[in-house]
Amino acid sequence: SGVPVPSPGRRRVGVMGGTFDPVHHGHLVAASEVASVFDLDEVVFVPTGRPWQKDHREVTGAEHRYLMTVVATASNPSFTVSRVDVDRPGPTYTVDTLRDLRRLLGDAQLFFITGADALQQILSWKDADDVWELAHFVGVTRPGHELAATGLPHERVSLLEIPALAISSTDCRDRVARGEPVWYLVPDGVVQYIAKHRLYRGGPLGPRLGD
Ligand code: ATP
Ligand code: MG
């Protein structure tokens, strides 16, 4: 499917939305690959406030997830982190994320980056019809999920094969809870952040910074 025709002079900005609980190398490789292939000037990571799909489980406080994302992206000059979702009250919907970024970034061309699992769910999103006007969507391969744009508008979606990293935040949390290492699954600074704040250790009352 089509890559949007480049408009000279317009900034090309990737948007990597996620819960990032915690951020891991699968997220970073996805952002890096899309930035390279689509010639992006910048990728903005946007940690969710309260993710509406994840109401069934306790998500780590937004401030911890935001700070881990800052730590993970700090060394890359073209990676930034936005607080738009963290600071917006109520559940996070991607249509609101894209509208806020549009307002903040002026006439930049937005490329919303999503793994194969999340791409399948777009049609169930709030105001799904509107999101196609706000960004071009790039679906990337993810181990264990079939990458397909079935039912999605083909001119608005590109599919991209990226290096396969079978890493998930769920697995990282479970590993920490079991006392197993997450070295090399998440950036070193995130390993240290998790240890320092005793995240994911289990028990009913985990740390709640800012939520
Ligand atoms: P959880 O297990 O808590 O759902 P996750 O690993 O799926 O965490 P999310 O924060 O839910 O991470 O995902 C943010 C985005 O990154 C989604 O679009 C997701 O599909 C994508 N993504 C996550 N992990 C990978 C991976 N290993 N490869 C490619 N894309 C990924
Ligand atoms: Mg997920």
Automatic annotation (TrEMBL):
Residues 15-175 form the Cytidyltransferase-like domain. It catalyses: nicotinate beta-D-ribonucleotide + ATP + H(+) = deamido-NAD(+) + diphosphate. Its EC number is 2.7.7.18. GO terms for molecular function: ATP binding; nicotinate-nucleotide adenylyltransferase activity. Pathway: Cofactor biosynthesis; NAD(+) biosynthesis; deamido-NAD(+) from nicotinate D-ribonucleotide: step 1/1. One of its GO terms (biological process) is NAD+ biosynthetic process. It is an enzyme of class 2 (transferase). It comes from the Bacteria. Keywords: ATP-binding, NAD, Nucleotide-binding, Nucleotidyltransferase, Pyridine nucleotide biosynthesis, Transferase. Belongs to the NadD family. Catalyzes the reversible adenylation of nicotinate mononucleotide (NaMN) to nicotinic acid adenine dinucleotide (NaAD). This is Probable nicotinate-nucleotide adenylyltransferase.
